[in-house]
Fold this protein.
Amino acid sequence: MAHGFFERFLRGRVRLSPEEASLSRRKFAGGSARARERLEGIGRTFIHGYNEALRSADIAALAPRLEIVAPVDRGFACEGAAMALTLLDLLVPAKQSRLEELLEGPGLRHVHLVHVGAGWALARLRRGERDIPRRLDPLLRWLALDGYGFHDGYFAPRKAFGEQHQPGRLAGYARRAYDQGLGRSLWFASVADVRRVAETVARFPEGRRADLWSGIGLAATYAGGAIEADFPLLCELAGPYTPHLAQGAAFAAKAREASGPPDEHTERACLLFCRCTAAEAAHLTDAEQTGLAAEGDQPDFEIWRRRVRGRFTGGITAS
């Protein structure tokens, strides 16, 4: 009885206002009107998925509430739902993981973003790597730490970008996965202004820049917001980190392929960052996933990223 009361109380208490998606509320200044509209829209979609997961009695009730979102943005709604359901799993455990039910149902085609959304919950509760849900894919589980980094850059940009803070509870490779997510959030915090993105990354220690650029490539390709003319400049500003930018773009293409046909900005980004189509970039990530094995202190996820980067080093592209 008390368990059920607490869950009902929690579901009502932790809802998010759509105003949390306002770039002005977040103090993310600048950017074009087009970029602001796009990135704010993504935030509202995320919050829609999050709140609907809290309102829904079960996954069957949640599914149609996610499906009202346009297919191109439905992954963001599933990401929000994953955050909400992971919060509930961590605070009010049930016989069957709510997150697992999402992955088996409406989140199946958006598996990458569901893993990211689980990381938002870890960040909100200030949990560590050991609290990553066990049911997550062994390879993609690192995306939960990516979500952790995005959360911190989005909600605490001064600390994340100004102080360049990393959570003390994360160590080793978890910090690198965190930085990829932080790079994704920088795309939002800079409102897709490619010069501001590059200037911010340049202030970070050199050892963190590669993972930040990987996240930037992911966000620019999956979320969009920039105009096509900005992409060549972004490649130029990335300089030696262009292969990391391309690797992030290829991962974004794979996530888009899993959820449905890529939209126009994903295709344009892949043509410029990867010098191949989005379908070819997604296929490349599949090819490089074969036979993965951890090497020393580097997990299989990093070996995967390294292989993909290698396809874009020295002008080598997908064939």
In short: Residues 1-24+33-125 form one domain.
